[in-house]
């Protein structure tokens, strides 16, 4: 009887230890994922900012505010811990980066980092050094809705790449080298509702005839531009 009781007790203890091991393993995996995500977001924010860019998140700037808050370095340990945990809370539950702006010299390495932000919905590269080939680096962003390429060297070959980004709804192309031919590539974007272009252009890269063809293919498309005059 005593032997059976001892065996049952040992079996119960063995089961408890196994359950404890599984619980510790699960907690470790969750915390590792948490800290990795926090590290990744901080790394992205740091790289974009060092390049003179801007970042916003789904928390309406709360995450960035926590990153910048001087209380993170407060002399009181509990105040520092409170902001440390708050920052990681917003990282996991509200920290999705949804907008990035880069307006200076842009390297392929930096674009590769931006290309890893799967939650990105708005990307502004206006006034940057981005090239047509650079666009391939971010062409796989499946949640991107608004793409600003104003005042860049992007041309028709770049629009052939943009035409693969089927999630796009708004494309801004003022001050680029696109022509009538390139604009027709945008008709391949099923969700596109608005584009911004230069019309009339001094060098007639975009013509009235070209806009007629575009509007015939996508009559619901909203076309915006400085001194816009729609063709008859």
Characteristic terms for this protein:
single chain, 232 residues, 10% strand, 46% helix, alpha/beta
Summarize the structure.
Helix content is 46%, strand content 10%. The chain is of the alpha/beta class and 232 residues long. Mean pLDDT is 79; it is low at 69-74.
Task: Provide an overview of this structure.
It is a single chain. The protein has 232 residues and is α/β, with parallel strands linked by helices. The chain has helices at residues 2-50, 62-68, 77-93, 108-114, 135-138, 156-162, 180-185, 208-217; strands at 54-57, 97-101, 122-124, 146-148, 170-172, 194-196, 222-224. It has eight helices and seven strands, in the order H-E-H-H-E-H-E-H-E-H-E-H-E-H-E. A seven-stranded mixed β-sheet has the order 1-2-3-4-5-6-7.
Low-confidence stretches: 69-74
Oligomer: single chain
What is the tally of beta strands? 7
Radius of gyration over all CA atoms, rounded: 26 Å
What distance separates the N and C termini? Answer: 100 Å
| Strand percent estimate | 5-15%
SSE order in H/E notation?
Answer: HEHHEHEHEHEHEHE
Query: How would the global form be characterised?
Result: elongated
Give the proportion of residues in helices: 40-55%
Task: Please give the count of helices.
Answer: 8
Counting helices, strands and paired strands, the structural category is alpha/beta
Mean pLDDT: 79
What is the strand arrangement across the widest sheet? 1-2-3-4-5-6-7
Summarize the main sheet.
Answer: 7 strands, mixed
